[in-house]
Specification:
single chain; mainly alpha; 2 helices; 0% strand
């Protein structure tokens, strides 16, 4: 594996894991806040953060990690 591919794999692998972690934790917090009275805005913000985490993880996996794995 070339040095640049290894560097990209590590950097975007960290972004992927961080994005998935943020998505799971954000979704969990959104579900926790949804049962509270007047928790609508907090639920929306946690769900939005979860969506951003999923987008970050998906984009880094689809455009960087998957082509590297398919090449090798």
């Amino acid at each position: 594996m070339a040095k640049l591919d290894l560097l990209l794999l590590v950097a975007f692998g960290i972004l992927f894991v961080g994005g998935m972690t943020a998505a799971v934790l954000g979704f969990r917090q959104a579900l926790r806040v949804s049962g509270r009275k007047d928790g609508d805005l907090k639920m929306f913000l946690w769900a939005f953060g979860s969506m951003v985490g999923l987008i970050l993880a998906g984009m880094s996996a689809a455009y960087i990690l998957l082509p590297i794995f398919l090449h090798y």
